[in-house]
Write a structure and sequence with these properties.
With about 200 residues, this protein is mainly alpha-helical. It has 7 helices and 4 strands. About 60% of the residues lie in helices and about 10% in strands. The structure holds zinc ion. Zinc ion binds next to helix 1.
Length: about 200
């Protein structure tokens, strides 16, 4: 059975119309597609007010809201994975931006800490050196390793942006420790290196 949508003036199967008990045939006068277009338009024009209202509702209906969320996630398991991934990306970006903004402060703080805690600082430096030594292997290509460090210096001089050599798999990783070999080295900006810490590579 066909029904004509009064918005797009198209004859469409009745399945293309939402139910509406108030209408004589129990169906909306406009098709679902036009419905969606209208909702989208309304939403874009009233976004802020709508979001405020939604936040307010969620705060007043926590249990209901949690139940809706749980049901939605059950219906759309793929969206949960996507949103977790998006959250992770967001966090990474946020962290990076925060770090860039606070790098100078952070460095000054580190220097101050090193000045006040000379012994602990020496121990930390020693541990870092030891990590490099302990993760060194006799078969590493020393010449290739030196070339990576030379490249870092060259890029620093050429760009004026401090570059460092990063161990792609950290030497003191929590789960896996990388080796001090040329294939585990790459030149990165100091900013990128600092914000990575001893995290596992994500890319
Ligand atoms: Zn229509």
């Amino acid at each position: 059975m066909l029904k004509r949508c009064y918005i797009c003036k198209t004859e469409k199967p009745v399945e293309c119309f939402s139910k509406n008990k108030g209408k004589h045939d129990g169906l909306n006068n406009r098709c679902r597609e036009c419905d969606r277009a209208k909702n989208r338009k309304w939403y874009s024009e009233n976004k802020d007010a709508h979001l405020m209202k939604a936040v307010e509702w969620r705060q007043n209906n926590r249990a209901k809201s949690a139940a809706y969320t749980a049901a939605y996630r059950k219906r759309h398991p793929e969206k949960l994975a996507a949103s977790v991934e998006a959250g992770r990306e967001h966090k990474k970006l946020y962290h990076k931006r925060w770090y860039a903004l606070n790098l100078a402060t952070k460095r000054a703080k580190n220097r101050e800490w090193a000045r006040l805690n000379p012994v602990a600082h020496l121990a930390l430096c020693a541990r870092r050196r030891a990590a490099v030594v302990n993760r060194a292997v006799p078969w590493a290509n020393q010449e290739a390793i030196r070339a990576v460090y030379a490249e870092a210096r060259k890029r620093t001089e050429e760009t004026g942006i401090p570059h460092e050599v990063d161990h792609y798999y950290p030497l003191q990783g929590k789960t896996v420790s990388g080796l001090h070999v040329e294939s585990n080295l790459r030149v990165v900006t100091a900013d990128d290196n600092r914000s990575k810490h001893n995290f596992m590579p994500t890319t």
